[in-house]
């Protein structure tokens, strides 16, 4: 039915790859400045939520992070703050960089 040569198949594959790459790059539709502002707002919310935890919960999270149990620390943060997974991970990463530095 389709009698393409090897060069034609390679051209089709290349064009498909280029189209896929361009589609992935433009998918977000968000300006870099807006993306950076959103990221900073997420970090601020995560830091504020962690600061609102009781000292005993904060020390539990610190202990888990020092024991390299990041997933458990994220679970504790999520459970006690109501943050989503992404923001809880941001809070855990930020706290880990503070206590392990």
From TrEMBL:
Listed name of the protein = Ribosomal protein L7/L12
Instruction: Name all Large ribosomal subunit protein bL12 C-terminal domain ranges.
Output: 66-98
What Gene Ontology cellular component terms go with this record? ribosome
Keywords recorded for this protein, A-Z:
Ribonucleoprotein, Ribosomal protein
The organism's place on the tree of life at top rank: Bacteria
Q: Which organism is it from?
A: Hyphococcus aureus
Q: What is the lineage of its organism?
A: Bacteria, Pseudomonadati, Pseudomonadota, Alphaproteobacteria, Parvularculales
Asked if RNA-binding is a keyword of the record, the answer is: no
Recorded hits in Pfam families, A to Z, give:
Ribosomal_L12 (PF00542)
């Amino acid at each position: 039915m389709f009698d393409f040569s090897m060069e034609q198949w390679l051209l089709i594959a290349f064009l498909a790859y280029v189209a896929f790459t361009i589609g992935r790059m433009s998918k977000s539709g968000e300006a870099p400045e807006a993306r950076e502002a959103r990221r900073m707002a997420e970090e601020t919310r995560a830091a504020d939520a962690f600061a609102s935890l009781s000292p005993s919960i904060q020390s539990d999270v610190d202990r888990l992070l020092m024991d390299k149990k990041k997933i458990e620390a994220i679970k504790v943060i999520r459970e006690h703050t109501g943050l989503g997974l992404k923001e809880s991970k941001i809070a855990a990463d930020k706290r880990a960089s503070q206590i392990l530095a």
